[in-house]
Amino acid sequence: MRLPTMSTNFLLAPILECPSDFFQSRDIKLAVLGAGSVGKSAMIVRFLTKRFIGDYEPNTGNLYSRLIHVEGDQVSIQIQDTPGCIQVQEGFVQMLDSLSRCMKWAEGFLLVYSITDYSSYQSIRPLYRHIRKVHPDSKIPILIVGNKGDLLHARQVQTNEGIQLANELGTVFLEISTSENYHGVCDVFQYLCKEVSKLHHSSCGDKRRSSIIPRPKSPNVQDLKRRFKQALSSKVK
Ligand SMILES: Nc1nc2c(ncn2[C@@H]2O[C@H](COP(=O)(O)OP(=O)(O)OP(=O)(O)O)[C@@H](O)[C@H]2O)c(=O)[nH]1
């Protein structure tokens, strides 16, 4: 097969410079964080399998990869489950190195507390600040989730407190029950995937715009005629 000649190379150049993910979307990388046994693993498994599985080994940080549909498009997602052993001291998060690495890696975050555990709610603000420090770009999507919404008799965090916190931090908030409502869990992940995909598309648009090579100006017709005449007259001489 013949390779493209110079002129077709010129046409291809701007396209080849665009990263391949312009045509095929990149993986969506999400992290689920929360202090204590707030239901992180249960939420992820519920979203990916539709099943609520009650008992998990204390989580050491599983990474889940799946193909899912977001607004009709198939996308590949990776979800990092994280250990709940996050300590908050004087408003600052103490965490393992692996968790810090995960924070850098992720492009969208679910911050989960349990409505039955006030201290898990109190850790959301420091976690949020930590993410903002790692990602100073304010666009990174973060969603606050109050889980275990079915355990009303054991409620320690009022729905209003979740809403207020989200308003204060400028994020979105949802109260859900992983055990009782698959759709709530699904909404949470779908929302985050959509937000991350929007960012992918806008960043690819920016890269594409900056990678387009300006097209050389084509000589105008008068100029071509003049050069043609010149060439002819020099041959006649
Ligand atoms: N009633 C009720 N229980 C839940 C819900 N979500 C999770 N659980 C239970 O809460 C416990 C902890 O859930 P996990 O998913 O292991 O929590 P985790 O945040 O991953 O915990 P770590 O591994 O300690 O980080 C389990 O017994 C779950 O069955 C819920 O919506 N309602």
From TrEMBL:
Keyword set, alphabetical order: GTP-binding, Hydrolase, Nucleotide-binding
PROSITE patterns linked: RAB (PS51419), RAS (PS51421)
GO cellular component, one term: nucleolus
One annotated GO molecular function: GTP binding
Entry superkingdom: Eukaryota
EC number per UniProt: 3.6.5.2
Pfam families given in the database record: Ras
GO terms of biological process kind: positive regulation of transcription by RNA polymerase I
Keyword Hydrolase applies: yes
PANTHER family: RAS-LIKE FAMILY MEMBER 11
Entry similarity comment: Belongs to the small GTPase superfamily. Ras family.
NCBIfam families attached to this UniProt entry: small_GTP (TIGR00231)
Name under which the protein is recorded: small monomeric GTPase
Organism: Chelonoidis abingdonii
Gene name of the encoded protein: RASL11A
